[in-house]
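Try it yourself: sequence plus FE2/S2 (inorganic) cluster, in.
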Amino acid sequence: MAEEQRIVLRNYGKIDPLKIDDYIAQNGYKSLEKARAMDPKAVIDEVKKSNLRGRGGAGFNCGQKWSFAYQAQADEKYVVCNADEGEPGTYKDRLIMENDPHTLFEGMAICAHAIGAKKGYIYCRGEYPYIVEILKTAISQAKEKGVLGDFDIEVRSGAGAYVCGEETALIESLEGKRGEPRFKPPYPPSEGLWGKPTIVNNVETFANIPVIMDKGAEWFAAIGVPSYPGTKVVTLTGDVNNRTFFEVPTHTTIREVIYKLGGGTPGGKKFKAVQIGGTSGAFIPESQLDTPIAFDNMSAIGATLGSGAVFVLDETREIVDTVTRITGFFEHESCGKCAPCREGTARCAELMEKINAGLGSQKDLNLLEKLGRVMTYSCLCGLGQAAPTPALSTIKHFRADYEAKFI
Amino acid sequence: MDYLKVISDHADVPGGILQAFHAVQAGLGYLPKEVIAEAARVFKISTADAHGVASFYSMFSVNSRGKNVIRICESAPCHVAGAAEVVAALERELGIKMGESTANGLFALEFTECVGQCQATPVITVNGKPYLDVKPAQIPSIIAEYS
Ligand SMILES: Cc1cc2nc3c(=O)[nH]c(=O)nc-3n(C[C@H](O)[C@H](O)[C@H](O)COP(=O)(O)O)c2cc1C
Ligand code: SF4
Ligand code: FES
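Structure, out:
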């Protein structure tokens, strides 16, 4: 029963991304026209009713977020697209921007109309210079055609900092500073870029908007799991036959993604674990594979949907070695603003390296677990809070792999 | 390149220091002290803050380095796909270690985290251009493209 359903990737392979007429021929910019004929409040109600939730990881209700910025009084408001896509194993936003840039602009322009903004930014990760070129070309075509009206979109490049995907760090970076997360509240919809009300949404979130405006909230809300309706683009890496991407309705289970679409593990080897949501996600054992790829269902098993990355490991892989590499990632990417993360990521990496080298003991593992638990509630932003997840989840589900490494 | 002009071209861009650094680095390969001092002046921040910005982001380098920057993804999907063997091949071929530049100033070797091309691991980039499904045996010919 697992089947693809393409909403955000509906134009993938069907249009030339650098020909705006191709997009227009697929009914492109019709939804924006429709939204502009509506009262902003009605647009927000429609998005709320669709129950679209953020695709960037936090799963916040999109229409509700927009309504906060709508209510905020200010001379200037901003729409920011989070195209930082730094979560290892993830390339879904790249796929959207590379193949259908106008669907992103249209989503942003509808948001701008809804909240009363005239200026938008796309913050694109520095590792995608070729995407920046596509976006710039497409924006100039949209300007020439006048489809965006008085809404202006500017593209900015990040410069290689994973933490800049965190929305307040991203805003700091847009302002030309070090990308260090801010203390919250205030949240961006009330005080964001240059202190003005700002909506930050993920690329995939924006790409859903034109379709919701076109087909209606009820149509959208009926797809997939009701608490997180619509589709999710998943990207498969590691030990899986079809190392590619799929867009699936959110009731699709992890098992269906790996076995029906992904074609299972190669070479007749047995499945061992899957990490969902990127490098900050939990490792999931075979017994939990019947969980739908939806936000609350994943939380219920102590995992996260995150970016929708699906990283599969077969029985021959060393879990402890893989997690050691991942703790190195967090040590490197910690911005250093708060001590629990700055110190904690370094100590986690140290402990994992010790255990992985065969020099650790039960004592080290206990220490790692305790440190990890403290980090989950004491770190300032999601980076530090999630950093111990790969270690904690594998200690829980694959403890024997750790014990086998003890001196 | 005339870095003074490149920086002043960005003077009116709010928060434009990152974009100015990108533009200068595209020409000079790194961000020398004078560039950071000039950017601080133009964007009206302290030199320490400008240096803080330059050193925060892994794609900016405040030290001179080889002209062609080769980066190897070491994130988990590339790690399990054999990134270590690609690293070994690069180090062997160029005669330098990760983090170093060749004596002739042509190449720099750096680690990076995921570059978003995970459909074809392991991945390296040269000056931002991705090479997919890289096998150690391909390294000499990739390097030859830039020699
Ligand atoms: C360390 C960290 C990295 C993040 N990286 C991204 C990212 O690359 N892209 C993204 O859209 N959201 C990322 N987020 C989530 C954003 O903070 C924010 O929730 C999101 O952009 C909101 O958009 P959405 O509601 O459309 O999902 C990250 C969060 C954290 C804590
Ligand atoms: S948790 Fe880590 S990344 Fe987040 S603010 Fe603290 S030090 Fe920076
Ligand atoms: S994990 Fe290496 S490119 Fe994404």
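One thing you can check immediately is this: The pocket of iron/sulfur cluster (ligand 2) is lined by residues A 163, 181, 334-338, 341-342, 379-381, 383-384 (CB under 6 Å).
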